[in-house]
Fold this protein.
Amino acid sequence: MQTTADTRPTTRAALHRYLPVLGLRLTTPRLELAPVCDDDLAELVALALAGVHPADRMPFFVAWTVGAPDDVARGVLAYHWRTRAEAVPERWTLPLAVRRDGELVGIQELQARDFAVTRSVTTGSWLGAAHQGAGIGTEMRNGVVQFAFDHLGATRAKSGAFTDNLASLRVSAKVGYVPDGTRVVLRHPGVAAVDQRLLLTPDRFRRPDWAVGVEGLRDCGAWFGRPELVDPGVG
């Protein structure tokens, strides 16, 4: 009997058995956040190539959005393959593909080092230019911070932005982050910039009037270094 492409499992479904974190799913009123899988990568590359920021502004420490299209594409692919391959309970990076009505709109990242002891996470994100200015950045940050505090057991969430990245700083302020010092860093060859560090603790978190939905945590707690974690309402 001939097997068509429509009957084959997605890469996410096929690999979930071996990498349970791929079954994690967060939901907010408008968005769905799930770990980036190979099923997402072609769409993710297209979103990045369509534009993330104005050409005369660089909001990232690594200028991954600059270069020939093929170079940007290879960089996006390599980053996501590398972060998945290198993740261990003591040091992990979790890029979450953010979708609105099924359409990929950006990435919300969560990362930590020695999380089982430090209970500290760092957030980072980007949105395709066509999806900016609609409150999506604030909603996805709210969702991932709720997940970190209420489900992973984090006690600190860190972030940061260059001082001229006003959009990112506004999102952080809406969520409740407070300044946590600055540092001068190299932005471009020969050009310095001020990086504003930010800190959020559960008592300062400006919670929205909704709760993030969480599915699949029971199976992947060990990936975060906390195998005792369970899904909401379970055990």
Remarks:
- The chain has a mean pLDDT of 88.
- The longest helix spans residues 69-86.
